[in-house]
Amino acid sequence: MPPLHVSKASASQPPQQARSRASLEKVLAAAEHVLAHHGHEDFTLGAVAEQAGLSVGAIYRRFTGKDQLLYAVKDQLLTRLETNVAEALAGSGPHDVVAAFTRALADTFATHDRIFPELLDGQRADGRERGLQALAAIQRAFVEAAGDSQAVRMTARTVIGACVHRAATCRYWPDGLDWTTWAAETTELALAYLAAAK
């Protein structure tokens, strides 16, 4: 798991001691579970505390409220997305960049497919800003790996947009594909576009 990245907007400082970090990870895992199984509407600090086996007071000692905890969950997932994309691109050859990028997006969203829609539904301004930062970071990583051109930038925006749209709407507008198939078909589409754009 990548290191926890907690921004100033979340107003929570990352813990320095191993025990405190483990406690934070336990709270964030419980929050992900509650969000995935009960949705944004029924997401409460009490439900998270119960899932984590902690008191509500223990949650309040770390977070000022529900919104701050939701931001921390989103921040952690977006950090994973950034890390997964960077690692996939670093390990890919020049001909595999598009497939590695698309698979990294799909794998991250597939692992958290019940959480991303909930986080997208309940975004506040600071959460939207963090999301845009993550999308810009993964687009930069792709452009650096694939070579900067208008076609490469367009491919990055299209693949990212398709992935986010799919994650946000899959409950309401299912396409019948698993994430692996989606990644393969999206890769073919992107490669065909890049070949035509040369």
UniProtKB/TrEMBL annotation:
Pfam families: TetR_N. Residues 21-81 form the HTH tetR-type domain. Residues 1-20 are annotated as: Disordered. InterPro entries: Homeodomain-like_sf, HTH-type_TetR-like_transc_reg, HTH_TetR. Keywords: DNA-binding. GO terms for molecular function: DNA-binding transcription factor activity; transcription cis-regulatory region binding. Residues 44-63 bind DNA. Residues 9-20 have a biased composition (Polar residues). It comes from the Bacteria. This is TetR/AcrR family transcriptional regulator. It comes from Amycolatopsis eburnea.
